Amino acid sequence: KKNYRIAVLPGDGIGPEIMQEAVKVLTLVGEQEGVTFTCEEGRIGGIAIDTDGTPLPEATVTLAKQADAVLLGAVGGPKWDQNPGHLRPETGLLGIRKALGLFANIRPATMHSSLVDASSLKPEVVSGVDLIVVRELTGGIYFGEKKRYDGPNGEVAEDQCIYHEAEIERIIRVGFDIARKRQKRLVSVDKANVLESSRLWRKVAERVAADYPDVELTHQLVDSCAMQLVREPKQFDVIVTENMFGDILSDQAAMLTGSIGMLSSASLAAGSFGLYEPVHGSAPDIAGKGIANPLATILSVAMMLRLSLGMDEAAAAVENAVWSVLEAGHRTGDIAADRSKAIGTVEMGQLVRDEL
Amino acid sequence: KKNYRIAVLPGDGIGPEIMQEAVKVLTLVGEQEGVTFTCEEGRIGGIAIDTDGTPLPEATVTLAKQADAVLLGAVGGPKWDQNPGHLRPETGLLGIRKALGLFANIRPATMHSSLVDASSLKPEVVSGVDLIVVRELTGGIYFGEKKRYDGPNGEVAEDQCIYHEAEIERIIRVGFDIARKRQKRLVSVDKANVLESSRLWRKVAERVAADYPDVELTHQLVDSCAMQLVREPKQFDVIVTENMFGDILSDQAAMLTGSIGMLSSASLAAGSFGLYEPVHGSAPDIAGKGIANPLATILSVAMMLRLSLGMDEAAAAVENAVWSVLEAGHRTGDIAADRSKAIGTVEMGQLVRDEL
Ligand SMILES: CC(C)[C@H](C(=O)O)[C@@H](O)C(=O)O
Ligand SMILES: CC(C)[C@H](C(=O)O)[C@@H](O)C(=O)O
């Protein structure tokens, strides 16, 4: 009987609540597919700061490295917001990305037809939106050298944005590989009219394109892309971009759908290893109330089944169960038109499992 | 009789057509107010590359420096897209910003009620949007050191993002000064959870806030701000941010209104000197056809009258003339619901002058 080791990092805020439902779904999938998922819990973010004195304990990195895949809830909260950099929850997130070599962040923004009303955009603009942002996750200005010093006129701060050709090439290839399985349209986003790193980015994208003659590659400047995402999001199939631009554009794209509580993401290393997490944050304001939407985390389980464990059918089954529950009209508060009819986290998780 | 010298830089594409209408409006204002505007033309962008071999001839910088204010059309076009960096139209734009010390870019995104339908957002989400993005324009990653070299695994490219305390302070003050005259709500946007320059930015914003106790300062991370602009743009009064984030967010904010052909911008130096230009580009596809919308350029004239020449009433008169023309139902093609009824550039300019 096949056995997969899954590192489960619930994190902070609503993290533990939503993770619980996701793990229950995973367990059920295991029973149905005759596979064992050994879920081992680790700490990351604020809870790790409180317990271990660091947002990313060594034990968590080891646990993750020994696993076949990682499921993450969410990190952060007001309690740690004033902490110095090395004691902030996000530092744990950045650290685990680097430690595990998770260079490819995959963020689908898909508008499910029954949720069109949740968007702030007109239905005719968003219905049918189905795009993926592929974001480089371990390079660029996030991980370049940082400096802070006193100059003649006060303090000076520097961040270095650095990209190596090989780093660009591998993420561009991920973009092409994904586009190839979809509508075969890849938009590479940069700021080549200003940045040297973007000029190298564009050059590498052009070179790699020769290996994908079946995929159409176009380039968009980041400012135009931010406009086009608002104006006509349906024009996009796959967007590939560097770390900082990807942070901004993927969040913008997510919000177009109006239901960020529904969106999951994958952060992949070379090979099949990956970390899976909802796009939304730790929502400290509703933590512990049992009202958080567990669907993004459940859909992250589906992404994990497909991308790290090769269990395509099980992944599709989980996704279909989620859509069926939505189509039957069940909603958590964040996506409910009528909040008085909203159901809770556990109830939503149960409905998905019933459907499965 | 008062005499102002205005440097007029029509640039490329639709630039000359729209500038012609703007200058006619300016001339009329001069007659009405008993002021002489001496408009002197200079070259910038593609036309300057073709004529002078550089996107920013020395003569243009001199002309601008001797003027009281600068009006710019738009630069760029496919003809120069493949040129090396120093021979690209945008390089002229970046160059003139730096040469004239235009550190404060002011970009209002205002939803005029008669144009609500042009937006891709729901009417209830955009009607009433009235925000200003204040973007730092001469620092950050745009002007930091750039490097390109061969590493062990192919080429490497670097961009340095650098901010001095004094640079941050002066733009933050511009943000506060503008907010003070409006709804007194300033959102400072950064990525303080990742970037050193953002941490300095936030620190300076906090310090300067002490001088503006009447203005409410809040901080937003750039990724959240990109989300919030989509979700609920009405929450914003004034946004202040660094160069790269401002490039992206101001374009996103502009597109929320759906009528980018209506939006103008100012780039200000210390004192009253400024450069005024429409937010839209050179639109090479419709250049020379006489169908471009001149209203953003005409509204740039109004911004110039107010911000550089202290002619507040004349500025308001121009703006009101534009709103009246719109309310009477006149539209250029870019903002027309029924394109068959769209009017041309010259006709639109004439209608505004008639109204004045
Ligand atoms: C928390 C933060 C450091 C992180 C990022 O900027 O990458 C987050 O915004 C994300 O997108 O996962
Ligand atoms: C043309 C380009 C260099 C410029 C910028 O990025 O500043 C433009 O996008 C703008 O916003 O004025």
From TrEMBL, chains A, B:
Pathway membership, UniProt: Amino-acid biosynthesis; L-leucine biosynthesis; L-leucine from 3-methyl-2-oxobutanoate: step 3/4
EC number: 1.1.1.85
Gene3D superfamilies noted in UniProt: Isopropylmalate Dehydrogenase
Residues carrying the site annotation Important for catalysis: 142, 191
Subcellular compartments: Cytoplasm
PROSITE patterns named in the record: IDH_IMDH
Family named by the database record: Belongs to the isocitrate and isopropylmalate dehydrogenases family. LeuB type 1 subfamily.
Oligomeric and partner information: Homodimer.
Alphabetized PANTHER family for the sequence: 3-ISOPROPYLMALATE DEHYDROGENASE
Identification of the protein by name: 3-isopropylmalate dehydrogenase
Organism this protein belongs to: Brevibacillus fortis
Origin organism lineage: Bacteria, Bacillati, Bacillota, Bacilli, Bacillales
Gene: leuB
